[in-house]
Specification:
The chain is α+β, with helices and mostly antiparallel strands. The protein has five helices and eight strands; from the N terminus they run ααββββαββββαα.
Length: 144
């Protein structure tokens, strides 16, 4: 019997192992972000509510336009306010008026810049561990 190629089987194993690694790494990162957001996001946790934590998601792995297996994670449209904190924004100081029963903006003071970066610094902080998690999930699939 001559040589028989298992290229199709090998391609399926590589794709499966990359997908398993991407899912494991994304889930690890999301769990770390949820822990960080729950404990100290937005000036000591004042704005980190269950609402934000419930709207963190990841996609299933897919092939992007360049042929690379990719996975996306972040917050959905319901919690886009997290993006404003991450990128930064200016805000006028305001006070609550008991007599008017509403918030009043104080425009004679300068704007205040708010920014709390957590997503990108956490990603770079976790890079070595994410590689380990990826490989730990990918290796068993390749060995099948």
């Amino acid at each position: 019997m001559g040589y028989q190629s298992n290229l199709t089987v090998m391609k399926a194993r590589v794709k499966g192992s990359v997908d398993a690694g991407l899912i494991a790494a994304a889930d690890y990162y999301i769990a770390a972000m949820k822990a960080k957001l729950a404990s100290n996001y937005y000036t000591g946790g004042a704005y980190a509510t269950g609402h934000l934590l419930e709207h963190i998601f990841r996609t299933d792995p897919y092939t992007d336009s360049n042929g690379n297996r990719t996975i996306l994670y972040g917050v959905d449209d319901e919690a886009m306010y997290a993006l404003y904190w991450e990128l930064g924004f200016y805000k006028w100081p305001s006070v609550y008026s008991e007599s008017a029963k509403k918030w009043i903006t104080i425009t004679r003071f300068p704007l205040k810049w708010y920014r709390v970066e957590l997503w990108v610094p956490t990603f770079f902080e976790l890079q070595p561990r994410l590689r380990e998690v990826f490989l730990a999930a990918a290796r068993p699939v390749m060995k099948r």
